[in-house]
Write a structure and sequence with these properties.
Distance between the termini: 22 Å
Radius of gyration: 19 Å
Structural class: alpha/beta
Number of strands: 12
Largest sheet: 5 strands, parallel
Number of helices: 8
Strand content: 15-25%
Shape: elongated
Strand order of the largest sheet: 2-1-3-4-5
Helix content: 40-55%
Length: 244
């Protein structure tokens, strides 16, 4: 069962969350302590499968990813994370060969740290990546592409490809916000409360209002032949769709 985010009480809940995917617990604890001193929250995954599960559950701001983990190794985890989206990833590895660095960069790693390392240096690199992402804006802050769907957030334009044809979606502002929220983490299940807070923050709406907007969005997609988006997860909320 994936663990939840942790950290000392002095670290605010709004602080950036770093997922440490490292099978050596001592290294993970040292990194967590240094990150916490710098005002960052942390969560620990002991292997690749747990890292992928926790990434879905926690939606971290950055992942520190060890290459040589049991089960699913770091390269496979990185490939899956890049399939899901643009979460910043810093690779941790004992391998210092150029080919390994090139593989990490090719798969989309944001940085690369070779063991043994100075934990303070790792923290500095984490902060640098987070600053760079914040300054430049994450790619999905401008456009989102998941499967046949494309959203341009600057132009407030939404479209979906059905067969050989791309259809423009006529969405209300709330429907657009809900769809974009789901597309940012297409495999994650969002609760009604989360969607309400993110997409209807200005009103006194009830959680059941989300169901109404989801239903209208789904009907518009079904009219174009798109089935199963968004997906209802009984007792939890909604996620983007099948195959995402």
């Amino acid at each position: 069962m994936p663990a939840s985010a942790s950290g000392p009480s002095s670290v605010p809940a709004s602080a950036a969350l770093v997922l440490i995917a490292e099978d050596e617990r001592e290294i993970a604890e040292i990194l967590a302590a240094y990150l916490a001193r710098s005002g960052l929250r942390t969560a620990h995954a002991a292997d690749g499968r747990e890292a992928l599960a926790m990434h879905l559950a926690l939606d971290p701001d950055l992942v520190l990813l060890d290459v040589q983990m049991p089960g699913v190794d770091g390269w496979k985890v990185l490939a899956e994370l890049r399939h899901r989206g643009h979460t910043p990833v810093i690779m941790l590895t004992a391998l210092d060969h150029d080919i390994d660095k090139l593989m990490g960069l090719r798969l989309g790693a944001d940085d690369y740290v070779v063991k043994p390392f100075n934990p303070a240096e790792v923290v500095a690199r984490v902060q640098a990546v987070l600053r760079r992402i914040q300054a430049s804006g994450a790619p999905e802050a401008r456009a989102l592409r998941v499967g046949a769907f494309h959203l341009d957030l600057d132009q407030h334009d939404a479209s979906v490809r059905v067969g050989e044809r791309r259809h423009t979606l006529d969405l209300t502002l709330t429907e657009f916000k809900i769809l974009s929220r789901l597309m940012r983490a297409p495999r994650r299940v969002f609760s009604r409360a989360e969607l309400l807070s993110a997409c209807l923050p200005e009103g006194d709406s009830q959680e059941r209002t989300v169901d109404s907007h989801i239903s209208k969005l789904r009907k518009k997609l079904e009219a174009l032949g798109v089935q199963g988006t968004p997906v209802s997860v009984r007792g939890v909320g909604y996620r983007f769709g099948h195959g995402a």
